[in-house]
Write a structure and sequence with these properties.
Elements (H helix, E strand, L loop, with lengths): L5 H5 L4 H14 L1 H17 L5 H14 L13 H18 L9 E6 L8 E6 L1 H11 L8 E6 L10
Antiparallel strand pairs: 1-2, 1-3
Length: 161
């Protein structure tokens, strides 16, 4: 039995090929579907501006072929809306921050000033890593929480001895 990848999936040339892929993943169950989701997640993570539309179409195709991902795992009941929301947030970041402004160090900060809890900070990131983290966490924000994607302009750092 083949272990098709996301790359195979996104380039399926015909309805017949889509149906064969669908049947194969259904027969493989959790592991086959997980490979597809891992590929989609990686595609979103590494997506550049020109990749967004293709990934949107691929998610739409996957949700059409696998309309009830809960059959593979209860944790995937809402996977299509989650992937759509993550991709939409990444698309927003990419369309808001011009390519010329993306160089340098970035960080993502999350906090809820209404509750006593630690601030979460992901410092020292390249732009595309920070953009993905922002996109991943943005759809999950609860009431009063905020998320910030920010570029570091000046850093003073000390290391204890």
């Amino acid at each position: 039995m083949d272990n098709h990848t996301y790359e195979d999936f996104k380039t399926l040339p015909t309805i017949e090929a889509e149906n064969a892929f669908q049947n194969e993943v259904l027969s493989q169950g959790y592991s086959g579907f997980r490979r597809l989701l891992d590929g989609m997640t990686e595609a979103i993570k590494t997506a550049r501006d020109a990749d967004i539309e293709g990934i949107e179409m691929t998610i739409a195709k996957a949700s059409r072929l696998f309309p009830e991902p809960v059959i593979f795992s209860p944790s995937w009941e809402c996977i299509w809306p989650e992937l759509h929301a993550t991709l939409a947030a990444k698309k927003h970041v990419l369309s808001t921050i011009s390519p010329t402004d993306r160089k340098g160090e970035w960080q993502v900060i999350m906090d809820n000033p209404q509750v006593v809890q630690e601030v979460v900070c992901y410092p020292g990131l390249e732009f595309h890593d920070a953009a993905y983290l922002y996109a991943y966490f943005r759809p999950q924000l609860e009431k009063s929480e905020y998320i910030r994607l920010q570029k570091i302009q000046t850093v003073i750092q000390e290391v204890g001895s």
